[in-house]
TrEMBL record:
This is Hydroxyacid dehydrogenase. One of its GO terms (molecular function) is catalytic activity. The keyword GTP-binding does not apply. Belongs to the FAD-binding oxidoreductase/transferase type 4 family. It comes from Microvirga ossetica. Keywords: FAD, Flavoprotein, Plasmid. Residues 35-216 form the FAD-binding PCMH-type domain. It holds the Pfam family FAD_binding_4. InterPro entries: FAD-bd_oxidored_4_C (IPR004113), FAD-bd_PCMH (IPR016166), FAD-bd_PCMH-like_sf (IPR036318), FAD-bd_PCMH_sub1 (IPR016167), FAD-bd_PCMH_sub2 (IPR016169), FAD-linked_Oxase-like_C (IPR016164), FAD-oxidored/transferase_4 (IPR051264), Oxid_FAD_bind_N (IPR006094). PANTHER family: BLL6224 PROTEIN, D-2-HYDROXYGLUTARATE DEHYDROGENASE, MITOCHONDRIAL. GO terms for biological process: respiratory electron transport chain.
Length: 474
């Protein structure tokens, strides 16, 4: 290896610089099969110092870098463009749990640690790290941070931003910012940490983090509640919250169309009702108290919901297997969608209290564009975040749907904007939404973001073309 590749090999060792197509394939394509990129190499550093040295070498040679963790992005954020000029910087070798502090309730990890491994490490000391999402077996803490990931427990614990105390970041100029603080209070100026969280690999490469831990919940109570519609689901949310307070950990909504899809495509999926209801809510409570008390509390809330005619039917899981089966229905939706065909995916948020109104308005707007399009709507109702997926009409070809999809996306996003919502609640902008930024972000926001990008990464080498449009310089 010579030139840049030789330098990279000198930093990380030749075996950690992949250049043949077969080895690079998993790193240059996204998991949804939507983006197919190319790279001159995939580099796999083993430490923050190696990451910094790679960034310095790339800066000197003007080489674009695409940071990558588990490559589970829903927005093509970790996939290089097709030019073949970029280097993919894969953090997965950096998978050390550096320290756990059960008194301060913190865990310090390398950025390449898989989320599920953080769960296990926390559990071993009787603590809990609450970020939870379908890809937790392969996504990494660095990717979770770079996208400010949400998931199914935001309602109680917040997004990744709220779960993080400190960061270590390799900057595009080859320096390392050591912000690995475990302080819960520190008012010494601008919150640099919060700038890197959600920056999608465009400002620096996160190499380590100090995360918050919580007491391990000993008890969980999980129910599936059949509801007539989203409006009833929102009233149910208020009712359960009122009766269960902070014990309410997850409140996940899915329409009957989602359930149909899961039952069709996921072999082990079952519903505990005779027929598929118009909509379902998965409610989960958790507590450090015992199971029986929690189940009784949930049951009491569901009786009240039924009396108020908010619930058509409900079942509380009687054991871990039943709770898992409930989650299988919810977590299987993305997989079932992929098996059904290419979806027009939307990850919007609107104020929680206006979600039912939004769904009705978006449904009308979509039907006006194309009446037969299938709506597969689900998500984190308690956070005001919906995955508003659309599938082609049964009699429409994939090719025709691909032509139609941008118009559908336009009307869905315009509706979200009309409700003062966001076009990306948790999946990030990546390359999927970058073209929409000028329409949905205010000029002053774009101007400030571009100024920050110019400050951190003046040569625009870090994840170019993601999150922000390339500047006129490129
Ligand atoms: P990647 O996909 O590798 O990268 C994502 C972005 O982060 C890219 O822009 C990349 O350049 C950047 N990046 C990665 N590592 C670093 C680093 N160390 N430093 C700087 N930038 C970096 N997301 C949610 O928020 N909530 C969900 O409920 C949810 N559910 C999902 C379910 C499934 C089945 C799947 C496949 C995905 C889901 N996602 C969800 C999306 C995705 O898993 C998350 O965004 C995840 O946080 C990405 O982590 P990753 O390590 O795979 O990152
Ligand atoms: C989820 O909540 C993920 O399951 C994926 O954010 C959503 O596939 C999707 O649209
Ligand atoms: Zn989600």
């Amino acid at each position: 290896m010579t030139g840049l590749l030789g330098r990279l090999a000198a930093i990380v060792g030749e075996r950690n610089v992949l250049t043949d197509d077969a080895s690079m394939t998993p790193y240059v394509n996204d998991w949804l099969g939507k983006y197919h990129g190319s790279a001159q190499a995939v580099v796999r550093p083993g430490s923050a110092a190696e990451v910094a040295a790679i960034l310095a070498a790339c800066r000197e040679t003007g080489t674009p870098i695409v940071p990558q963790g588990g490559n589970t992005s829903m927005s093509g954020g970790a996939t290089p463009d097709a030019s073949g000029g970029a280097v993919v910087l894969s953090l997965t070798r950096m998978n050390r749990i550096r320290e756990i502090d059960p008194i301060g309730n913190t865990i310090t990890v390398d950025a390449g640690v898989v989320l599920a491994h953080v769960h296990t490490a926390a559990k071993e000391v009787g603590r809990h790290f609450p970020l939870s999402l379908g890809a937790e077996g392969s996504c990494t803490i660095g990717g979770n941070l770079a996208t400010n990931a949400g998931g199914v427990a935001v309602l109680r614990y917040g997004t990744m931003r709220e779960l993080t105390l400190g960061l270590e970041v390799a900057l595009p100029d080859g320096r390392i910012w050591d912000g690995l603080t475990a302080l819960r209070k520190d008012n010494t100026g601008y919150a640099l940490r919060d700038l890197f969280i959600g920056s999608e690999g465009t400002l620096g490469v996160i190499t380590g983090a100090v995360l918050k831990l919580f007491p391990e919940p000993k008890a969980k109570a999980t129910a599936l509640v059949a509801v007539p519609d989203a409006e009833a689901a929102l009233s149910l949310l208020a009712l359960v919250r009122g009766k269960c307070g902070d014990r309410l950990t997850a409140f996940e909504f899915m329409t009957g169309a989602c359930i149909d899809l899961v039952l069709r495509h996921i072999a082990d999926a079952r519903i505990p009702f005779g027929a598929v209801p118009p909509a379902l809510v998965l409610v989960e409570l958790s507590d450090t108290d015992d199971d029986a008390a929690l189940n009784a509390r949930l049951e009491d809330a569901l009786v009240a919901a039924s009396e108020a005619e908010l619930a058509l039917d409900a079942t509380i899981a009687q054991d871990i297997a039943q709770a898992k089966a409930s989650w299988r229905l919810r977590e299987g939706i993305s997989e079932a969608l992929v098996r059904e065909g290419k979806a027009a995916k939307h990850d919007i948020s609107v104020p929680v209290s206006r979600m039912a109104e939004f769904i009705a308005a978006a449904d009308r707007a979509v039907a006006a564009v194309s009446p037969g399009v299938r709506h597969v709507v689900f998500g984190h109702l308690g956070d005001g975040n919906l995955h508003y997926n659309l599938l082609r009409a049964i009699d429409m070809s994939e090719a025709d749907f691909a032509v139609l999809a941008p118009r559908l996306t336009r009307v869905v996003h315009d509706e979200a904007k009309a409700y003062r919502g966001s076009i990306s609640a948790e999946h990030g902008i990546g390359q999927l939404r970058v073209g929409d930024m000028p329409r949905y972000k205010a000029p002053i926001e774009l101007e400030l973001m571009a100024a920050l990008k110019g400050l951190f990464d003046p040569a625009e080498l870090l994840n170019p073309g993601k999150l922000l449009p390339l500047s006129a310089k490129q």
